[in-house]
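Chapter summary example.
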Amino acid sequence: LGAGAGSETGFARGGAFRGGQVQPFAAGGVVAAPTYFPMANGTGLMGEAGPEAILPLNRGPDGRLGVAAGGGAARPVSVTVNIATPDPGAFRRSEAQVTASLARAVARGQRAT
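The structure predicted for these 113 residues follows.
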């Protein structure tokens, strides 16, 4: 294939040669064997040391370019705490500690999912 034919056969959408065919990778994929691909100044080689992942990059709200994490937005969490105490004054004095402890527990739960 000539350099001009590359864009017509899939490289404009992201692709690589494998067995003489063009395979698009614009949505990502895995290369499990050594595979050549064209570069501006020659030819690149991927998968030469084992499987390699190809990941599409997205620009975040902050303008930085990177890989987006899967799973979407965080799910809303509702926590109900009922406290019965014979000494409301003592609870009010420790309320900040209880609130902080609950916030840490909820944060741990969100990271674990």
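To summarize the output: Confidence is low (pLDDT under 50) at residues 1-10.
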